[in-house]
Amino acid sequence: MKPKGYYLTVLSGSSNIFANCIIKKKILILILSSSWLIFIVTLSCSNQHHKSESVTEKVVIDPKSNHKVNLSEVIEVVDLIFFETNENCLFNNIDKLRYYNGRFYMYEQFGSRQALCFSDKGRFLFKIGAIGHAENEYITLRDLNINQWKDRIEIYDINRDLIQYYDFSGKYIGKGSIGRKTRHYAVIDSLHYAFFNDGEYDDLPYNIFITPQDRFKVMHPGVPFQGDRDIMNNVNPFYESENGVLFAFSLNDTIFSVTSQGAQPKYILDFGKERIPKEVLGKDMKDIVEVFRGNTVPGFVSHLVENPEYISVSYSYQIPNANTVFISKDKLDVLNLFEPVNDINYLPFKPPYCTMGDFFVSVIPAYEILDTYREKEMQYQRLPESINIEAYTSLKNIAGKINENDNPVLMIYKIKNL
Length: 418
Fold this sequence. Notes:
Blueprint: E1 6-12, E2 18-23, E3 37-42, E4 57-60, E5 75-82, E6 96-100, E7 103-108, E8 114-119, E9 124-127, E10 141-147, E11 152-157, E12 162-166, E13 172-177, E14 185-187, E15 192-196, E16 208-212, E17 220-221, H1 229-232, E18 238-241, E19 244-247, E20 254-259, E21 262-270, H2 285-292, E22 298-306, E23 310-316, E24 323-328, E25 334-338, E26 352-356, E27 359-364, H3 366-382, H4 389-399, E28 409-415
Parallel strand pairs: 4-21
Antiparallel strand pairs: 1-2, 1-3, 5-28, 6-7, 7-8, 8-9, 10-11, 11-12, 12-13, 14-15, 15-16, 16-17, 18-19, 19-20, 20-21, 22-23, 23-24, 24-25, 26-27, 27-28
Helix pairs in contact: 3-4
């Protein structure tokens, strides 16, 4: 280990000398009178450990482990948030949900075709833009992002290849043209976007690419192209957190770290004998469906979410909502929730859509809650001894607060130590 201090790397053009010199103070300006020298000052303390971005971790996942685990053993529900329902904020589904500075931002691509903002208590605050052809409107809403560096909400209109800008009150403040169609993108930093290519452009032989925010110009390739539109279909392949941007997509067993310099494999999901058959890559959708029919071969990695301790991802093609894994980032331990039993409140378990601080956030449709309650009510009447009374009572109280067509309920929870 190098001693504590700042390091000065010296390159000499006259004698081809390369040396590292320890200095005790931060050097800002050096003036020399001899032959030319190039000085590179590295102002980082050497006693700090920096993990290389190029390190790829292997995560071993046994799809058959943790089968039908009781949720009370592995998660702690800390809150339920009921999204307000009124004529100004009705929607059927959430395509993307993000939490930022005490508010939830979401959009629904089909159905209501709108973007909405709610408080952290579920109160409806405002709509973000509207469907239309005016300058401040969008025709086809395809993605939503929070650009914290520019203090704005961004909505991608795939019909016009525009990113519409709104402030945090929902007011329109401008737009940017990217010149290319995409289905998803991520804000990398104050200057760069990462765009997802699902086969729309044959001249771009990779699935993600980095471009400046103010114009379309491919700066760094991301992932070598691995599939067409059907194979690359995914639910929000990017996830942005305070730790950076992660990327995962469909028939691929890799989670990538994305920066302004490109993409690097960060985690390899090793399913062993159950792994994704590589021969299906490049095949037609009907062939892919045939491979997955009647089995539980992992595939279609989606619902990627990260908090300070864990990464969560769903991995099954047939029942993606039921196959969610939580990976501890320090030990790489795995919690595999395959059709878990919710003995806490009997709510249907869904994969996380985002985080709220350190907590995970799952979205549960109101109609599913009511269907589950009716099912448990019948079970209680026939075989009361088979029912967890505490969980049933909790479910009954939740069901009493909602109607069939209400907006969904958010379950806020944390993972117990693995």
